[in-house]
Amino acid sequence: MRLVEHFEQGLDAPICLTWELTYACNLECAHCLSSSGRRDPRELTTEQCEAVIDELQRMQVFYVNIGGGEPTIRPDFWHLLEYAVAHQVGVKFSTNGVRITPERARFLASTDYVDVQISLDGATAEVNDYVRGPGSFDTALLALQNLQDAGFRDAKISVVCTRQNIGQLDEFKAIADRYGATLRLTRLRPSGRGADVWDELHPLPEQQRELYDWLLAHGDGVLTGDSFFHLAAFGEALPGLNLCGAGRVVCLIDPVGDVYACPFAIHDQFHAGNLLTDGGFRQVWQTSPLFAELRSPQTGGACTKCAHYDACRGGCMAAKFFTGLPLDGPDPECVQGHSELALAGARTIPAASQDHSKATPTRNQPVMLKLMTRPPVSDCAESPLAGFVPDGG
Ligand code: SF4
Ligand code: SF4
């Protein structure tokens, strides 16, 4: 059996488990996939988190992606990190960098099995801070500097690709090289607050091509996870997991212990259970009816007629769901243009199941800044296809 077929049927334990430790965040990014901002009072206690780690160790989950919210603002974050590593669960954590002081950077440099991923959504402060909030570019770069000064090797720089930063791919790579880091590009999804900014920020069709060409040219030194397999419909496949792993090899534990099929699918429809009330994580992973369904053979729907189906497999389930498209049809960013009809027709965008956004503006009030401080020189400065009517191809 090919590896991909094993993956389609699901594994005994996830190979890409994300655990969001808190919904609290010092920032309030415009496209936050978990609509983070405020802590949920039901968030797991330190002891409950330790029990989760114990269970992951028993399941032989060798590493976990920790995120949030901003995980480092949990007072027990550093304890849980050490607890995980001591229990043979490696940690890769995502942070906006706010707590990566020189001292913490030295501690991180002294650990094994810990990887740090700094979020940066613009290669310039103007582009980054537009979505992530004032000062967040400087914070991220200071964190990278502290890590480098401390001798931490190969930090990751995690970039959500948007309409505004696709033109900065070379600059992102240069920043990564400057800090001895590796660039990780991910796809913007219309999940959480990402739904509110999707129409404005998701890359234009010609930018999808630009991104694809760039990844083909630079892909070896750049991480992408399963982000861009929908681009494989341009031709050659890209490195990475070329299928939707939701509930098969991917899942999310949220701060209150709810388990979802994927970090980008925080919605009742993709809720598999709760590890406090449904017998623990292993029980949810192995017996949830939702996961059984996701692991069963899928029909490709309208996509099965497409010559590129084997490469693209209809794209991302979460992107379809949160744009109100059928799950067995084309991705909203189908590079062959096959979602255009459905996008133009009647659709119901699902309401969010939860929202942890801050009720009142905060110090780092982000959403949205004013990006253009002066008008573009011409329409073409913003879009090379400005003024052209697409021919529907
Ligand atoms: S739903 Fe989308 S983001 Fe989640 S695993 Fe599937 S393809 Fe990846
Ligand atoms: S029609 Fe479906 S399989 Fe074909 S390229 Fe579009 S999303 Fe991919």
UniProtKB/TrEMBL annotation:
Q: Which Pfam families match?
A: Radical_SAM, SPASM
| Annotated EC | 1.3.98.7, 4.1.99.26
Molecular function terms in GO for this entry? 4 iron, 4 sulfur cluster binding; catalytic activity; metal ion binding
What UniProt keywords are attached to this protein's entry? 4Fe-4S, Iron, Iron-sulfur, Lyase, Metal-binding, S-adenosyl-L-methionine
Query: Per its Swiss-Prot or TrEMBL entry, what cofactor is needed?
Result: [4Fe-4S] cluster
Q: Does the keyword S-adenosyl-L-methionine apply?
A: yes
The residue ranges of the Radical SAM core domain are 11-223
List the catalytic activities from the record: [mycofactocin precursor peptide]-C-terminal glycyl-L-valyl-L-tyrosine + S-adenosyl-L-methionine = [mycofactocin precursor peptide]-C-terminal glycyl-N-{[2-(4-hydroxyphenyl)ethenyl]-3-methylbutanamide} + 5'-deoxyadenosine + L-methionine + CO2; [mycofactocin precursor peptide]-C-terminal glycyl-N-{[2-(4-hydroxyphenyl)ethenyl]-3-methylbutanamide} + AH2 + S-adenosyl-L-methionine = [mycofactocin precursor peptide]-C-terminal glycyl-N-{5-[(4-hydroxyphenyl)methyl]-4,4-dimethyl-2-oxopyrrolidin-3-yl}acetamide + 5'-deoxyadenosine + L-methionine + A + H(+)
- SUPFAM superfamilies in UniProt: Radical SAM enzymes
UniProt cross-references to InterPro entries, sorted A to Z? 4Fe4S-binding_SPASM_dom, Aldolase_TIM, Heme_synthase-like, MftC, PqqE-like, Radical_SAM_PqqE_MftC-like, rSAM, rSAM_sf
PANTHER family linked: PQQA PEPTIDE CYCLASE, RADICAL SAM DOMAIN PROTEIN
Q: Quote the protein name from its UniProt record.
A: Mycofactocin maturase MftC
Q: Which organism is it from?
A: Nocardioides soli
